[in-house]
């Protein structure tokens, strides 16, 4: 099946929503950080760029991202995609995650200032 | 996704926003409300905030006297009705303690009574030097200063340590309020007081795990095989002093985010320990979880070796049940986190169709996870009352509900089999073998011949006399394909009655310490 950037993004989004937990931290700002770091690191891994793993937090984001990319081995179309398309797709993926789970979320606890 | 209106709740219009029919993957259209005060007129089946603090989180700690400061009734649910076992002969479920407040104490105060109770309890169990005390509605309302009494005792008896949890029943809409309070109280009052002995380069806290029928011991086995030191478990099979040393871990591995994300978030903020949410249930989610912990520490090869060995051993048994459970309808109605731990994997690995998910005390975040993970067509309900549960069961006609014992008994009355999601039937359910045990329990429930017999109404139905007794397998195998029936590979569960037996006394590999986290 021919994968476009849009359909590829939808497939990866469905995968994350069904299988992952990191995107559901309970505060909006926390979700923002998780999405940014994990999707950011997954993009770097997919594009074979170096990832920073200096702190424990970095290492945790990286482990989540690396596991995600390993799981995505089941999508052969991803291997054929060029770097520029991967970057565009992952950028849209992050926007969709932010939209679903932060900016347009109906979860009323996201804005609670305390944990 | 439309909100779902129950006919029985038309007279309680506020309820409409508590249920949603999942039609597609879009959480921005509708999301059930959650973690709100129970609406007057609806009979909720939730627990109180004291229950959430003590019975869920505090009491699984194993080397502690757990004392309720209040009337004896609050304590009722503690004595051997929970199944959070431990490896120290189950001290915490064998004995239960309460100050037994009476009317006269409400009038004259109960601080003296409490002090005497504490002394008496320590005297009765001289080897136990740790205690937790829980406030209840009665002691909170009269304003007894439990903290002051605890400090007095600690001054008089320097070898004891006492933790006070001020989470009376009314301190939140449900048990979830108590989870929050005890998480924060523990991190504020106790974490950082003990310096642990570090024996590995890879050190974790295992958080939000309550050792139901041995779940913690199963996961501990995998971690030890990977050479990971579990500094503390919050709180199943956990030790009081180990939990005071939580600040020295490299990673918090979090299972039940509903009850214990607060302490992980605080430890992340105060001590820089990252939080990694995992699933301990189901072959694929558990494998991914072990792998990402392995990745974090740079020891993924050790995780892979365990996954390979365990999958080879247990997958054929899981598949035997999956072939027989395919297409059966299930209502996934646990308390909080299991609705999302199980919603996808029970479908993918056992072939069950999840027709409904609900939560008693979950927040909207739990519903986001549950709705994302279940298939379209499922009915998602927040804190249903008994009539709503009945209406849902009559409409959805599930083959099984997985829930707690109170709603479970209601289901039985209308002849729907149930599995205990909180305390389990024949757990542990975590781990590879545990997942097969869960499948076996589901199979036994769905195909139990008793449900055929109990559906017969002897006042009007025709009683069949020419057929004799049927077995589960006669019922389950009647429609099965020959290739499955004759498979030499697939077979029923062959583990032992006590699956923890082989873990006790097991020798673990010793990995020499390199002195720091290899990857940093
Ligand atoms: S609501 Fe209050 S009185 Fe009732 S069990 Fe809870 S703490 Fe005790």
TrEMBL record, chain A:
Native source organism of the sequence: Pectinatus cerevisiiphilus
Function per UniProt? The key enzymatic reactions in nitrogen fixation are catalyzed by the nitrogenase complex, which has 2 components: the iron protein (component 2) and a component 1 which is either a molybdenum-iron protein, a vanadium-iron, or an iron-iron protein.
Give the enzyme's main class according to its UniProt record, as a single word: oxidoreductase
Transmembrane ranges, per UniProt, are none
Q: What is its EC number?
A: 1.18.6.1
Quaternary structure?
Answer: Hexamer of two alpha, two beta, and two delta chains.
**Family matches, as Pfam families:** AnfG_VnfG (PF03139)
Name the NCBIfam families for this protein: anfG_nitrog (TIGR02929)
Name the reaction it catalyses: N2 + 8 reduced [2Fe-2S]-[ferredoxin] + 16 ATP + 16 H2O = H2 + 8 oxidized [2Fe-2S]-[ferredoxin] + 2 NH4(+) + 16 ADP + 16 phosphate + 6 H(+)
List cofactor names only.
iron-sulfur cluster
Task: Offer an example of a GO molecular function term for this protein.
Answer: iron-sulfur cluster binding
- Note the coiled coil stretches, chain numbering: none
Which InterPro entries does this chain map to?
Nase_Fe-Fe_dsu, V/Nase_d_su
**This chain belongs to which protein, by name?**
Nitrogenase iron-iron protein delta chain
Supply the alphabetized keyword list.
Answer: ATP-binding, Iron, Iron-sulfur, Metal-binding, Nitrogen fixation, Nucleotide-binding, Oxidoreductase
From TrEMBL, chain B:
Q: Which GO molecular function annotation, any one, does this entry have?
A: metal ion binding
Q: Which domain of life is it from?
A: Bacteria
Which Pfam family is one of this chain's hits?
A: Oxidored_nitro
* Record keywords: ATP-binding, Iron, Iron-sulfur, Metal-binding, Nitrogen fixation, Nucleotide-binding, Oxidoreductase
Residue ranges constituting the Nitrogenase/oxidoreductase component domain according to the UniProt record: 48-446
Name what cofactor the protein needs.
[8Fe-7S] cluster
* Enzyme nomenclature, EC number: 1.18.6.1
SUPFAM superfamilies (alphabetical): Helical backbone' metal receptor (SSF53807)
The record ties this protein, via CDD domains, to:
Nitrogenase_VFe_alpha (cd01977)
* Catalyzed chemical reaction(s): N2 + 8 reduced [2Fe-2S]-[ferredoxin] + 16 ATP + 16 H2O = H2 + 8 oxidized [2Fe-2S]-[ferredoxin] + 2 NH4(+) + 16 ADP + 16 phosphate + 6 H(+)
Which NCBIfam families does the record cross-reference, listed alphabetically?
A: alt_nitrog_alph, ANFD, N2-ase-Ialpha
Which PANTHER family did the record assign?
NITROGENASE MOLYBDENUM-IRON PROTEIN ALPHA CHAIN (PTHR43457)
Family, as annotated: Belongs to the NifD/NifK/NifE/NifN family.
Q: What is this protein called?
A: Nitrogenase protein alpha chain
Tell me what organism the protein belongs to. Pectinatus cerevisiiphilus
């Amino acid at each position: 099946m021919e994968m476009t950037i849009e359909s590829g993004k939808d497939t990866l989004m469905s995968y994350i929503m069904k299988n992952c937990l990191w995107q559901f931290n309970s505060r909006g700002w926390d979700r923002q950080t998780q999405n940014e770091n994990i999707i950011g690191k997954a993009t770097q891994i997919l594009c074979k760029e170096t990832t920073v793993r200096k702190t424990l937090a970095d290492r945790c984001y990286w482990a989540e991202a690396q596991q995600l990319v390993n799981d995505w081995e089941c999508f052969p179309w991803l291997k054929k995609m060029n770097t520029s398309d991967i970057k565009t797709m992952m950028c849209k993926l992050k926007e969709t995650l932010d939209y679903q789970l932060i900016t347009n979320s109906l979860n009323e606890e996201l804005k609670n200032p305390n944990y | 996704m439309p909100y779902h209106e129950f006919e029985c709740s038309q007279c309680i219009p506020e309820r409409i926003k508590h249920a949603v029919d999942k039609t597609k993957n879009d959480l921005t259209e509708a999301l059930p409300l959650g973690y709100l005060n129970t609406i007057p007129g609806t009979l909720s089946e939730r627990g109180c905030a004291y229950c959430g603090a003590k019975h869920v989180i505090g009491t699984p700690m194993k080397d502690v006297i757990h004392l309720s400061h209040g009337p004896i009734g609050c304590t009722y649910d503690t004595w051997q009705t929970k199944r959070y076992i431990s490896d120290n002969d189950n001290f915490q479920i064998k004995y239960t303690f309460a100050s037994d407040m009476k009317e006269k104490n409400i009038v004259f105060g109960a601080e003296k009574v409490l002090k005497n109770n504490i002394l008496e309890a320590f005297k009765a169990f001289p080897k136990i030097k740790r205690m937790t005390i829980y406030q209840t509605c009665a002691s909170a309302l009269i304003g007894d200063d439990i903290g002051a009494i605890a400090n007095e005792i600690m001054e008089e008896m320097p070898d004891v340590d006492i933790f006070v949890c001020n989470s009376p029943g009314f301190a939140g809409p449900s048990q979830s309020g108590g989870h929050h309070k005890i998480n924060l109280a523990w991190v504020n009052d106790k974490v950082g007081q003990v310096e642990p002995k570090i024996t590995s380069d890879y050190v974790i806290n295992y958080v939000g795990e309550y050792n139901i029928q041995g779940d913690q011991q199963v996961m501990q086995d995998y971690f030890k095989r990977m050479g990971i030191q579990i500094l503390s478990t919050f709180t199943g099979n956990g030790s009081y002093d180990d939990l005071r040393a939580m600040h020295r871990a490299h990673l918090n591995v979090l299972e039940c985010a509903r009850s214990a994300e607060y302490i992980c978030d605080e430890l992340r903020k105060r001590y820089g320990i990252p939080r990694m949410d995992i699933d301990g249930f189901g072959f694929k989610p558990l494998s991914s979880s072990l792998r990402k912990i392995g990745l974090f520490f740079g020891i993924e090869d050790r995780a892979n070796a365990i996954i390979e060995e365990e999958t080879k051993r247990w997958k054929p048994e899981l598949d035997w049940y999956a072939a027989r459970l395919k297409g059966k309808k299930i209502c996934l109605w646990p308390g909080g986190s299991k609705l999302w731990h199980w919603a996808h994997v029970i479908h993918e690995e056992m072939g069950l169709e999840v027709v409904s998910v609900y939560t008693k005390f979950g927040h909207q975040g739990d519903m986001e996870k549950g709705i994302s993970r279940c298939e379209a067509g499922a009915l998602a309900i927040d804190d249903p009352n008994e009539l709503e549960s009945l209406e849902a069961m009559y409409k959805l006609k599930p083959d099984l509900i997985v829930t707690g014992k109170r709603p479970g008994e209601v289901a039985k009355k209308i002849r729907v089999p149930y599995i205990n999601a909180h305390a389990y039937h024949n757990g542990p359910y975590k781990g590879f073998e545990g997942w097969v045990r869960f499948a076996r329990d589901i199979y036994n429930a769905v195909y139990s011949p008793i449900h055929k017999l109990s559906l017969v109404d002897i006042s009007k139905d025709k009683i069949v006399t020419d057929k004799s007794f049927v077995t589960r397998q006669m019922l389950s195998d009647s429609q099965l394909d020959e290739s499955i029936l004759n498979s030499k590979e697939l077979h029923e569960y062959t583990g032992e009655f006590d699956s923890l037996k082989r873990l006790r006394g097991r020798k673990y590999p010793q990995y020499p310490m390199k002195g720091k986290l290899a990857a940093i």
